[in-house]
Design a protein that fits this description.
The chain has helices spanning 45-53, 78-81, 98-110, 124-137, 152-165, 182-194, 208-214, 232-237, 239-246, and strands spanning 5-16, 19-30, 34-38, 60-65, 68-69, 83-85, 170-174, 200-204, 217-222, 225-230. The strands form two sheets. Strands 6-7-8-3-9-10 form a six-stranded mixed β-sheet, sandwiched between helices. A four-stranded antiparallel β-sheet has the order 2-1-4-5, covered by helices on one side. It has 270 residues and is α/β, with parallel strands linked by helices. It starts with a strand and ends in a 24-residue tail after the last helix. It folds into two domains: 1-89 and 168-270, Rossmann fold, CATH 3.40.50.300; 90-165, no CATH class.
Length: 270
């Protein structure tokens, strides 16, 4: 584990029925960075994130978080260390308001019992951080609306607010813009840009414009193996990456993606 690493993945291996989904994956995640994990379908991206979240246990290897070995730690204990996996911390309760859903996450982090029947919505110590999280994702004006009628993109934003309400140290994001329209995708990208430096994020994402806009570093997985890790320019120019995965798709991404909102144009197919 390097001196700056918040999370170290050491020779992580996971097989299903004799097929290796992650093959001796080693990687350091630096505090404050957005680190994207990309690769073709079946590359092992979600399997890797599931092992980091504790949903899957590796066959071998180690996961070190803030210097502590969490390899065999159950999934339900990892959020208490500050590890949050977007869209899997809790499900949206459709017949509750937007605010009430975020209040659940605040209460869970604080170790409170669920006290909606005891007017938890009047408790400023719960409402204030919940509203702050909704403001971060742009849903503060919908706080008192029922969650059910929200659009798909707004559900994703609400789930992100619930993640942020737990005040995580490390956020695991698996396809945060999947299924979104252009406007919702733009909003999500801006939300994540605003978190740069204040949160450490591991991002699995197929949209290359989003990846190259957000990522400080990128790791490429192919058939469960890391073939390259580096900053966006290094990944763009890496011949192994171009041959194994991205090919001409890199040519469609602006050479300075941070200078242009990627969602103002149609994303390339992946």
């Amino acid at each position: 584990m390097t001196a700056k690493a918040l999370l170290s993945i050491v020779n992580l291996h996971k097989s299903f029925g004799g097929v290796a989904a992650t093959k001796q994956v080693s990687l350091d995640i630096v505090k404050g960075e957005i680190h994207a994990i990309i690769g073709p379908n079946g590359a092992g991206k979600t399997t890797l994130v599931s092992q980091l979240a504790g949903v899957l246990l590796p066959d071998s290897g180690r996961i070190l978080f803030q210097g502590n070995d969490i390899t065999r730690m159950p999934a339900h204990r990892r959020p208490h260390l500050g590890i949050a996996r977007s869209f899997q911390i809790t499900s949206i309760i459709l017949d509750m308001t937007v605010l009430e859903n975020v209040l659940l996450a605040v209460q869970a982090k604080a170790g409170h019992s669920y006290r909606f029947w005891a007017n938890s919505g009047d408790d400023a110590s719960l409402v204030e951080p919940a509203m702050a999280s909704l403001e971060q994702v742009g849903l503060q004006n919908q706080a008192m609306q029922m969650a059910g009628p929200l659009s798909h993109g707004e559900h994703r934003q609400l789930e992100m607010a619930m993640v942020l309400a737990t005040n995580p140290v490390l956020i695991l994001l698996d396809e945060p813009t999947a299924g979104m329209g252009q406007e919702d995708s733009t909003r999500m990208v801006r939300t994540l840009q605003a978190l740069k430096g204040s949160r450490t994020i591991i991002l699995v994402e197929h949209d290359m414009n989003t990846v190259f806009t957000l990522a400080d570093r990128i790791t490429v997985l192919v058939e469960g193996q890391v073939i390259a890790t580096g900053d966006p320019d290094a990944i763009r120019s890496n011949p192994m990456v171009r041959q194994a995965y991205l090919g001409e798709e890199l040519d469609s991404i602006p050479s300075e993606p941070h200078a242009e909102d990627p969602m103002t144009k149609s994303p390339p197919a992946c």
